[in-house]
């Protein structure tokens, strides 16, 4: 019998042998272990196995589940589940220090094997949606971006790629009701130097894409003269200006663009500095936040949405750092 090893691949039958202990019979393509996405482990009342498929199917339909480079899983329950369903309440109150939810992930329904990603801890759920209920979970054993890149490569075989060196505009997500819940995750070792280097590289790549995009849009409306005057401010002046790109509206008025980038999905969190918030507030009518997401560094492409105006009224903001002294 195969042992449970982080990031190794398993069939449903393998997982059944590990967790079921011969209590039930395994039938491929049928029954709880052979078909279901949520499986309660026998004789362990609050322990579960999640079988999750991300990416797209062969018809190009995007699955709702997704995983960010920070190890945050966006996940939906079964369609029959409402917010007051007993199992949903159990998931919302899940305490990872006492009980376990084991995540097995694959990028396509065509693949028989799932990769074991580790255990999950509850982060959040959408209080406005049910049938199914939408959750966010943290992968506790998440270590670095290496495994995320491997999953991306596997998913690339089935996902229709965007053209290289391109951005695709989408609708901005709807602002959700703010609520909080205490989170007490285990500490994890982080290579902050490497992370900062990766974030800087990602940010610059996204800014260059946005720079190219905004020039192209001005040229399309016959304002090549303005396109030639667009300034990549964060490169020319550094990061202290409060925005990244000085562009123009077609009528010649200034437009200030702040670019935030991630390899994660539409709902990934991002950081705003006090300087950026202050500049936005002073120039709200001429300000746009450009959120680039699902950035693919191999093809230098991604999707983006715009947020216009005062960010304090458009975003859920929470303090993440404090200045302190004795």
Question: Unreliable segments (pLDDT under 50, ≥5 consecutive)?
Answer: 56-63, 157-161, 190-195
* SSE order, one letter for each helix or strand: EHHEEEEHEEEHEHHHEEHEEH
Q: Main sheet, how many strands, which sense, barrel?
A: 8 strands, mixed
First-to-last CA distance:
57 Å
Helical segment count: 9
Proportion of residues in helical segments: 25-40%
Question: Care to count the β-strands?
Answer: 13
C-alpha geometry: elongated
Q: C-alpha Rg, in Å?
A: 22 Å
The SS-based structural class is alpha+beta
Name the beta content range. 15-25%
Mean pLDDT: 84
List its salient traits.
326 residues; alpha+beta; eight-stranded mixed β-sheet; five-stranded mixed β-sheet; 9 helices
Mind explaining what this structure looks like?
This protein is α+β, with helices and mostly antiparallel strands and 326 residues long. 25% of the residues lie in helices and 23% in strands. It has 9 helices and 13 strands. It has helices at 12-20, 31-35, 86-92, 146-156, 192-220, 224-227, 233-236, 274-282, 311-314; strands at 9-10, 38-40, 48-53, 66-67, 72-76, 101-106, 114-125, 134-139, 166-169, 245-248, 254-261, 287-296, 301-308. Strands 1, 2, 3, 4, 5, 6, 7 and 8 form an 8-stranded mixed beta sheet that branches. Strand 2 and strand 3 form a beta hairpin.
